[in-house]
Amino acid sequence: MKVKKAIIPVAGLGTRFLPATKAQPKEMMPIVDKPAVQYIVEEAVEAGIDHILFVTGRNKKSIEDHFDRSVELEQHLEAKNKEAQLNEIIEISSMATIQYVRQKEPLGLGHALLCAEQFVGDGPFAVLLGDDIMDSSIPGIQQLIEVFERTNQSVVGVQEVPYDNVSKYGVIQPRQSSQNPCVIEDLIEKPSRDQAPSNLAIMGRYVLKPTIFRFLRDLKKGAGDEYQLTDALKESLEYECINASILEGERYDVGHKLGYIQATLELGLKRSDLNEDLFALLRNFVENEKKGVM
């Protein structure tokens, strides 16, 4: 079966970005001139996904508004003959069929997916975490979809991280580390450096079979006192094969301040309307720093 549905969990409180996220979702914070979550939706759409479910929480209404029609704004842009901006705004609301379900408590990624069970039905589905932006020639989730269509087995996206950072991620133990994709032997959520079976960390992209829900329903709380998807995947390994595929491309963790700043700068430098001036600005900053002006 083709992967045509995606889940994007966005129910987190965004406490790392307080006070900026006191009244707006972290997913709506702009990277250059688009909210972070729009990059995620565009990745899914480019991969052929046409039905998207946001798992939301309180204070997330602006996400719904962003992907809805804005008749007053469209009329204003049309009256001002701003055709390019008008077309861009209309396209945002027509990229895919988008639905919403509320996660009443932030109980972890496993619980967020369980909220989406009815949406998924009996077919495979993609999961894209809102904190991770991928910049790649082939959309990150498409890379996993291609692996799924070859193997008919669930697949998670991974990248190598420094061993000092493994405690931030779900980490896999590959059956054969030289293979890509590789079969997963084991998974551990947020292990210490000594516990980590490898430095291959899950990067917020999954293509899963609906059988995962039978394990999510009986899941017990794990790391962070939350229901972890990694724990459900670990339990399912006794019954089915799950692959890991190394994601090609640059991944930005916009859920952390430094990753957010990095994404803004690097994606800005790739914009033809900004790269020259932005590069000059950065070069001037570095030169002044060397001179001790800053």
From TrEMBL:
Keyword terms, alphabetized: Nucleotidyltransferase, Transferase
Keyword Repeat on entry: no
Pfam families: NTP_transferase
UniProt domain Nucleotidyl transferase: residue ranges: 5-265
Transferase is among the record's keywords: yes
Enzyme Commission number(s) from the entry: 2.7.7.9
InterPro entries: GalU_uridylyltTrfase_bac/arc, NTP_transferase_dom, Nucleotide-diphossugar_trans
GO MF, any single term: UTP:glucose-1-phosphate uridylyltransferase activity
Catalysed reaction equations from the record: alpha-D-glucose 1-phosphate + UTP + H(+) = UDP-alpha-D-glucose + diphosphate
Domain of life assignment: Bacteria
Family per similarity comment: Belongs to the UDPGP type 2 family.
Protein name (record): UTP--glucose-1-phosphate uridylyltransferase
